[in-house]
Amino acid sequence: MKETFVGHKFKLLNSEKTGITLELNSWSSENMVEKYSVSFDKENIIERITKDRISFGEKVSKTDFFKRLIRDIQASEEKTREFASAILCDFLEFDITDFDLKDLKLGIENIIEQITVEKNVNSEHKLVEGLFEFIWHKKLSKKAEVQLLERLTEIDSYHIWSYLEDELEDEYENLGSEKLKKYYIENKPKWDEKNDSLYGKKSILDKVKSIFTKKTSG
Q1: In this structure, how many other beta carbons lie within 10 angstroms of the beta carbon of residue 86?
Q2: Is the Cβ–Cβ distance between 73 and 111 less than 8 Å?
Q3: Which of 59, 80, 150, 163 gives 75 a disulfide partner, CB atoms 3.0 to 4.6 angstroms apart?
Q4: What residues in the chain have per-residue pLDDT under 50?
Q5: What's the per-residue H, E or C state across the chain?
Q6: Nearest to residue 59, comparing CAs of 132, 3, 13?
Q7: What pLDDT, on the 0 to 100 scale, is given for residue 197?
Q8: What is the pLDDT of residue 209?
Q9: Can you give the pLDDT at residue 205?
Q10: What pLDDT is recorded for position 2?
Q11: What pLDDT does 171 receive?
Q12: pTM of the shown model
């Protein structure tokens, strides 16, 4: 199996620049050449760099890796925020099983703050997705989870609604929260209209199929 150096310290060859490697992949837009997404220590920026330009060092801790991504989702450079948000989303989905909850909670606060000010739709989407990946890990108590969901209702975001709708559609009556129940009932028409404008209304055929399915499964 080919060794990769994701999550390692690095130094650029022929340069004094240092940082942390965040990801390794290849994109069609880059002629499928493998590149590392790297975050620089002294510059709040992420760049894509080929392996032959990098000298690799020791692996960093999960905590330092997470804190670096939290720093970079708040960067002034838009592309850096996009990179960081996507990588952070994957981290929250796959790498937090044994992660300290205290550190996670501090990072989640930063994520929520960034969602409220993020103007890039791709970054916002990945931040919201990552936030719900954290929720789905069930590291919070039921009470804390409901409190977090209630906080999210205060943010006017289509992406938050998209995930909250799935969470609340069959559960808002069981969560014991009047705030969540009110949010769902009052916001569903507004965001359904947004869905229709983005994706178009269901065709008559789809509606007929839906009715038929319900009748035959009932």
Answers
A1: 22
A2: yes
A3: 80
A4: 203-205, 207-212, 214-216, 218
A5: CCCCCCCEEEEECCCCCEEEEEEEEECHHHCCCEEEEEEECCCCCEEEECHHHEEEEEECCHHHHHHHHHHHCCCCCHHHHHHHHHHHHHHHHHCCCCCCHHHHHHHHHHHHHHHHHCCCHHHHHHHHHHHHHHHHCCCCCHHHHHHHHHHHCCCCCHHHHHHHHHHHCCCCCCCCCHHHHHHHHHHHHHHHHHHHHHHCCCCHHHHHHHHHHHHHHC
A6: 3
A7: 75
A8: 46
A9: 41
A10: 65
A11: 81
A12: 0.86
CA 137 to chain centre: 14
CB neighbour class for 69 (10 Å; exposed up to 12, middle 13-18, buried from 19): buried
Instruction: Return the half-sphere exposure (C-beta side, CA atoms, 13 A cut-off) of residue 192.
Output: 9
Number of neighbouring beta carbons within 10 Å of residue 63: 13
- Cα separations in angstroms, 28 against 25, 37, 82, 146: 10, 15, 18, 41
Q: Residue 125: how many CB atoms within 10 A of its CB?
A: 21
